[in-house]
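Appendix C reproduces, verbatim, an entry submitted by the partner laboratory led by Prof. M.T., so that reviewers can inspect both the input and the predicted structure.
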Amino acid sequence: MAIDLQVEGLTKSFGALLLFENISFSVEERQRIGLIARNGKGKSTLLKIIAGGENYDSGAIIFRKDLKVGYLEQEPHFEPGTKVLDACLRRNREKAAAISRYEKAIADGNEQEIHDAMEEMEHLSAWDFETKVKQVLSQLKINDFEQRVETLSGGQMKRVALASVLLEEPDLMILDEPTNHLDMEMVEWLEDYLARLNCSLLMVTHDRYFLDRVCNEIIEIDDNRIYRYRGNYSYFLQKREERLENAEAEVMRARNLMRKELDWMRRQPQARATKAKYRIDAFYKLEEKAKALRHDASVSLGTNARYIGKKIFEMRALNKKFGDRVITKDFYYNFARYEKLGIVGNNGTGKSTFIKMLLGHVAHDSGTIEVGETVKWGYYSQDGIKFDDNMKVIDAVKEIAEVIHVGGKALTASQFLQHFLFSPSKQHDYICKLSGGEKRRLYLCTVLMSAPNFLVLDEPTNDLDIDTLQVLEEYLADFKGCVIVVSHDRYFMDKVVDHIFVFKGGGEIKDFPGNYTDYRDWREEEKAAAAKESATVKSKAAKENKENRNSNAEKRKLTFKEKREYEELEKEIAMLEEEKNRLEAEMSSGTLSGNDLVEKSMRTAEIIDLLDEKGMRWLELSEWA
């Protein structure tokens, strides 16, 4: 198997912060690798280095000769003024240029240039490329191909960039969070699309179902080192746990040995000069190993929700629309105590607007929303909050509260931050130095520190690492309050919610009893049943139609006028077929001028339409002939 990419002895640090040291790995042809690490450990930086957008301290990055690489950045950018369609063509300059040359040659009527351009289009398989671009963009819910990129939202920009990389059809695809800003339908489409591509893949994503279904190997960055797992995400979970257990057992053995060595080292000073130097050196190595016992920092949030009464909220005849876009239409719902609701649906169906109406951030057009007096909201917005980048992490938290009460204990701001993986040294970093995921984690910290009893989480999984997601899931499972989650993370939804609202658009909201996988299975069964019923109806209709035609054929004969029309049609169709064959031969001869070629092409199109029309009429008359 050929090696597409070889990374050898790579080291990268930012000042005193060491991200990874002397790491090596390879990507084989058609291998699908998922890269996993905690926020701030260098995942995106590693991808950026490999793609050539970031320097590194030492090591080597070697690509296979003539390898075509496609790279999706976490936050892509386009030149202002670029149209969506042109942004997708930017990575396919050869095909885009060939299409332009062909169109110019046709406009100029230059026979030789038309011939050369046609050959180039054939060589680059560019004939259907523009159609394919539009198909991929449509699947990603980008429908205005002439829209300027500066008017796109961040999510739309990411989807245009993803389309551009997919259409480039590279040999090696490097994707940084490809599922961010995709709804569940798009993510499932992307899974199928990538499965059909004949390329290698190196990607960072926190979507665990996506990792499980797309990747056949996982690479983990931990303790500045690389660990490889030859299998999907489920296999990784199993083998990682075994690795950590083995490492812990090894450290415990080292500690037992160290106690004996320590006793030996502590003997009277006058004897120490005669001790074997190799044994002294071995002691210090053993001491270092004994101190390496892994203490996995975890997001230990506790469950300190305030008391919540029986009345939560009730919506009656709720209506909301923006122009022609209907969000809710005569919607009724009474939210129950300790209910955990998930909200899913395609982008633009009004999920975020719905929860903003509930919170009072957006006014509804008509109807009522009554919220219980004991409800205390905790709102995690997908837009986040704006931190002052020049502040330190600890100061940003202290601005909200110096002391936080969690699980019956009073914690200082520093102690509280440590529960969120912010070590004492990290707490004194400026916020501008945090990764995107670390800023999200800090935001989550600020939401929960007020001990709410009703959590509203709008896309909480974006940019959070898998370890943080796992603990957040456990926290929400034990949370003694109410939860509403808007998320496209199917794994997260399956673990957290009791039932889901499916926003179908046009104000239609379906309440489904179960998690997302339950809903998806039900939806597939419904589709299969509908397809079977449709096939049965079509078969029955075809049978009845055939019986009617046979019955009609027995009852009536062609009139004199219809018989003459039938005979004339046979002659006309034969003449049109002859003219079509002659025109096609002339166009293929290479002797026509540009104007003649265009003229005969237009006539050929007219003949095809006439043949379709006359052929249908001939078939109709032939049933009674």
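Confidence is low (pLDDT under 50) at residues 297-301. Additional entries are available on request from the coordinating office.
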